[in-house]
Q: What sequence folds into this?
């Protein structure tokens, strides 16, 4: 399930991922991204991931399609998680996407992550 986390900074998309991700979740994220990309050249993503149980195949392809189409329009990504495997995957992603600055924070560092992504 994905829920949105509000930010005062309009070019930041804040989400919480907890459990299983469905296609409807990714559709909501895509809608918010499109809306914000109409107003901003570059976006930033803040994601809290308390637990990740997986993603539906259709949702994965929706995410992949959006990522490939707009890969150069995301400048920063803050991932807040205590899952070591997710932190490792996130670090690799940051190296694969040119111009994307990615930082991983533990859950007790969430306030610092929010400050970093909004700065």
A:
């Amino acid at each position: 399930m994905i829920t949105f986390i509000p930010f005062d900074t309009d070019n930041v998309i804040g989400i919480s991922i907890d459990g299983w991700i469905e296609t409807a979740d990714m559709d909501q994220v895509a809608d918010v991204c499109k809306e914000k990309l109409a107003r901003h050249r570059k976006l930033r993503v803040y994601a809290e991931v308390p637990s990740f149980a997986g993603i539906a195949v259709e949702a994965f392809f929706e995410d992949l399609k959006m990522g490939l189409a707009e890969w150069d329009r995301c400048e920063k990504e803050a991932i807040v998680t205590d899952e070591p495997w997710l932190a490792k995957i996130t670090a690799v992603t940051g190296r694969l996407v040119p111009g994307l600055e990615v930082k991983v924070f533990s859950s007790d560092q969430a306030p610092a992550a929010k400050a970093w992504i909004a700065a």
About this structure: The mean pLDDT is 91. The first strand starts at residue 2 and ends at 5.
